[in-house]
Amino acid sequence: MGLVRAGSRLKMASMLRNSMRCSPISPAWAVQCATRSLGTTAQLQAQVQTKSKKSLSRPGVKNIVLVEGVRTPFLLSGTTYSDMMPHDLARASLQGLLNKTALPKDAVDYIIYGTVIQEVKTSNIAREAALGAGFSDKTPSHTVTMACISSNQAMTTGVGLIASGQCDTIVAGGVEFMSDVPIRHSRKMRKTMLSLNKAKTLGQRLSLIGGIRMAHLAPELPAVAEFSTAETMGHSADRLAAAFGVTRLEQDEFALRSHTLAKKAQDAGLLEDVISFKVPGRDIVSKDNGIRPSSMEQLAKLKAAFVKPHGTVTAANSSFLTDGASAVLIMSEEKALAMGYKPKAYLRDFVYVSQDPKDQLLLGPAYGTPKVLQRAGLTMADIDVFEFHEAFAGQIMANLKAMDSDWFAQTYMGRTSKVGAPPMEKFNLWGGSLSLGHPFGATGCRLVTTVAHRLRKEGGQYGLVAACAAGGQGHAMVIEAYPQ
Predict the structure, then answer these.
(1) Active-site positions?
(2) Cys-Cys link to 326, which of 71, 121, 317, 346 (CB 3.0-4.6 A)?
(3) Which of 212-226, 256-270, 381-395 has the weakest average pLDDT?
(4) Percent of the chain at pLDDT above 90?
């Protein structure tokens, strides 16, 4: 079976490379697009216009709106947040949302948070953060986990509660704290310690202690790896890039584009979802600290990070370990208007997808995008704003090439033709996870809030969010601008 599976993977990689040779995306696409994109902000402001596209509102279906979205600054792990706990960050995002909306705490029906690496002391981090932020102990809260789309799941769970009539007002969010992750003793040591706790006599305790060996003391370190395949995500990204013929140059160009656009957006004050936060015992933080525009020459000096020595994924064209939290206020349109709010956007159709975690771990956007467009009755041409999660530059490029391949659509998706790649002049124009940072559980809310803000700024009507996640899963959602 292993040889058959390996042969299948080699065949797929070979066929993908052959099909990609005809791809219209040239090796220098990123430099050209970055150059165009850097000058788009002023142009877009001048070109804001009212779209005449039909609304996705449906008779008898409740309209659900995004009222507001905020996030703490996303910081490199091990920096200013390093002495905190994850629920501290989640609490800060909740308090920031309350401050920005003047929302009465007792108006919230339910709170849902996403996270990936759980702090064992706060297993239901949504509840601990809510209590810390001053919400009533009568407000139910629960925590969800779905790898990098955990806060996407938190939001859509909230959408479901509103659509079913259970709730009118939901706060959803996500948090990740990579500065301090649980590190376990070895299994043998854990068993010994549990047995020690149950031992009734001194002799039993001494016997157990005498059985401890040096090997027992080796810790189990966490890793961003697949349980089902034991492969790190970076290794998977490198293989995926190779299968789709994504070069090191393309990946470095895309990473440079992400950082350059993020810095421009940050300097222009476009990242208005970021709230200032006073870190206890330290300074006030008010902006992301991982945005670092470089040069192609500097990027080219970095060595392969996963597949050594000839891999193409490096530290610079990968998202970095990040601490941060996000929160959004989701309501039924009727309730939002009754409370005097002006919503930012409608949350429309969404899908979750899942595929082989070995060979297609990071292709969630390629699978999710055509499905959500079909559900919404839209085409790629209808979408004005694209915000895709950037786990790795190679992952993004592989998804774009998959979406632009008839062969891939026919072979793997049961479609007659490709959906097409997003135009780069509409794609991640304010940076992305490569530059802004990627706190696993918090990124989904950032993506949705960014789409809402970009639609308003650029005068578009429809936005599309897409993200991959560990386990070979993915998410896509259509967002519609609220009438100005």
Answers:
(1) 148, 468
(2) 71
(3) 212-226
(4) 80
Containing H/E element for 30? helix 29-38
User: Dihedrals φ, ψ of 287, to 5°?
Assistant: -150, 160
Question: The pTM is what?
Answer: 0.89
Radius of gyration of the chain from its Cα atoms, rounded to whole angstroms: 23
Query: Residue 197's CB: how many other CB atoms inside 10 A?
Result: 8
Give 46 or 11, the one with higher predicted confidence: 11
- CA–CA dist 89, 439 (Å, integer): 11
Around 435, how many Cα atoms within 13 Å sit in the side-chain half-sphere?
A: 26
Q: Does the pLDDT at position 244 exceed 90?
A: yes
Give the distance, in angstroms, between the CA of residue 16 and the centroid of all CA atoms in the same chain: 26
**Pair of tokens at residue 410:** 């026919």
- Cα-based torsion angle of the residue sequence 450, 32, 24, 398 in order, rounded to the nearest 10 degrees: -50
Backbone angles phi, psi at 332, to 5 degrees: -70, 145
Q: 32-38: long-range contacts at Cβ-Cβ below 8 A with a sequence spacing of 24 or more? A: 33/257, 33/424, 33/425, 33/427, 34/253, 34/256, 34/257, 34/260, 34/261, 36/424, 36/425, 37/257, 37/261, 37/424, 37/425, 37/429, 38/260, 38/261, 38/264
Residues contacting residue 423 through CB under 8 Å, at least 6 positions apart: none
DSSP code for 334: H
Q: Is 117 exposed, middle or buried (0-12, 13-18, 19+ CB in 10 A)?
A: middle
pLDDT at 137 over 70: yes
* pLDDT tens, residue by residue, 314-347: 999 999 999 999 999 999 999 999 999 999 999 9
Q: What pLDDT, on the 0 to 100 scale, is given for residue 403?
A: 98
